[in-house]
Amino acid sequence: MVTMSDVAKAAGVSRATVSYALRGDPRIAAATAEKIRQAAQKLHYNANISARSLRSGRSGIIGVAIYELDRPYPSEMSAAVSREIARRGYQPIVQQTSGSKDDEIMILQKVTSQLCDGMIFSPGQVSDEELRALSHGKPMVLLDDISPDPVFDSVNTACEDGSAAAVHHLIDIGCKHIVVVGPSYDMLLDDKMASSVVGRRMTGCLRAFEEAGVDVSSRNFLPLRHWDPIPSREAAYRLLDSDDYRDADGVFCLTDTIAISFMRGLADRGVRVPDDIALVGFDGVTESEYAVPSLTTIRTDLDDLARKAIDLLLDRVNANVGGTGSDPSADTASDGDLAFPDSPQRLTAAWELVERESTRR
Amino acid sequence: MVTMSDVAKAAGVSRATVSYALRGDPRIAAATAEKIRQAAQKLHYNANISARSLRSGRSGIIGVAIYELDRPYPSEMSAAVSREIARRGYQPIVQQTSGSKDDEIMILQKVTSQLCDGMIFSPGQVSDEELRALSHGKPMVLLDDISPDPVFDSVNTACEDGSAAAVHHLIDIGCKHIVVVGPSYDMLLDDKMASSVVGRRMTGCLRAFEEAGVDVSSRNFLPLRHWDPIPSREAAYRLLDSDDYRDADGVFCLTDTIAISFMRGLADRGVRVPDDIALVGFDGVTESEYAVPSLTTIRTDLDDLARKAIDLLLDRVNANVGGTGSDPSADTASDGDLAFPDSPQRLTAAWELVERESTRR
DNA sequence: TTGTAGGCGTTATCAA
DNA sequence: TTGATAACGCCTACAA
């Protein structure tokens, strides 16, 4: 391994000078800096991240922790975030939380909070408060945070507006009995559920129904215990077999993966989409465009989401340069300074309704 | 941050004793070790990875570098590998190489080769020789390595056998004019292409054609410059519009993503699958099961692939414990010892032909 | 069985 | 403008 000492020797300067020069410190004379850069290049020198991180607490790495890397939406999202991180000159590393709380904690303790200058986290089981403890004061941006009073910055998908648009679209094309696949009717009674992704999406649906003057009952909701392909496919059978849903002519599935599996279930029974039942999904994964029939969906602009998330994160990361990072007692009083407000920001990713064959009548 | 000194103080022992105790060194008395473990637990102590890595060269992290994290096959593969790594008690981190050579080099230089005890790499642009230099002596297992004379252990998909099975299946169900979508007819003339994934899959097709006594010409191959959804969809138009392929009644697409996009292209033109044209894919991604019609495919057993890859990798990682790691001059002479042969191993992942609607006649 | 001490490669504080 | 020097937190001979 070639270390900084080797470069220093080759360039005829001290290690300290090499360190300054390679990081662009203006105190080093241009000629010296150039000489050092050339020596480093020739020796294929690369700064040791462990040593740098140990000494300075900064690694240049941004972590992304996401649930289930083998599902279309999370994987497209982490890819987009990953690319945006690289674009800003940081090294992205992705980790899969796989749903278990222990897993999430392990990831945060073992690598993310230690190695990373900041992290993008899609919370599953861990609460905001627990996250605060696990973050060790490192900046973190949450994706679709469900906490009623947030601790961290977050970027959300347009759950309410998007879902409302989906339901409005079904109404617009003439659907009389619309069924929302995912939530149960009494879900909103639970405060914690109400602020979750499914709760917010359901709220959007209810708003749309109300705006259109549609009466709502439990017949408008088909609950799903797990948002997985198999139960989603079977949900189609349940819909077709139950008297409650027999005249359903429009379905809004809370994710594209649910929608595509549900559509497969309808195909199993020979039900035609959109002729017999029109269908709308949510997410806008690539798959939705290539399905037969292609799926109308609420597409989340993942590039926009990534940009907003990384903007928020890097603001905090760079603000941390001066402070200790672990002691947020900086200046709670100076609320006049708007640059980095202490209160967590909450942004929403851009989205659009993409009309495709599944609602073309 | 709570360090080893804090634990030592709390337990009333020295730092060294803490280090030994927490890593299960038998020299420490059971009672002492237990006391130390409890103190560590109470303080929420976590060993600093940077410090450990700097001092011992080991981090407990295994890296996975894969091309395009937002495609179904690579994402399912990295998820499977990631889970297997976690199962063995290591921390997996995933990075996306995004195809560019600079990107791959950057990833290897900046984080993988520095931070990781070993890595799983799906090579794109970088040659085996370059990899050797970039690996800094760290163990590495390649996935679908295309090098004719390999430098590293690798696990491959069953390109030849799988493709042969796909073509045989199409012949079995009665297809008379089979078209393979992906490669061009003259591809095998190029030595480098011949050992690539597409080359090996094509070789399998040719073998099947030969075994079945089918004459082969360029009319049996529909080349694809990029294996992306859009060109794949358009390839279907090309097939339908060209006199060369007009009577095609069976298609083998070299990946599921190609197959699903191609199928979508056929649907655009109102061609029925399997009635007019039967279709087989390769990979066995989740999506293939939920497509309408569901896709017959050569499914690679990703759990088996992950298990084999990590077995190979951890063998080398643990073998490195004694040696310097960067100096592989250990014992090239003792070829009698079969435990860790110096010559790279090449394994093949288990696979199966999954028959579904797209070939059901 | 446990403690002492030195160093991994870098950065930051001083002094020159 | 540059150089010496002391940490950062951990591991590991070696000494006790």
TrEMBL record, chains A, B:
Residue segments, region Disordered: 321-342
A Pfam family assignment: Peripla_BP_3
InterPro entries for this protein: HTH_LacI (IPR000843), LacI/GalR-like_sensor (IPR046335)
Alphabetical UniProt keywords: DNA-binding
Residues annotated as domain HTH lacI-type: 2-56
GO molecular-function terms, A-Z: DNA binding
Protein name: LacI family DNA-binding transcriptional regulator
Species per Swiss-Prot/TrEMBL record: Bifidobacterium miconis
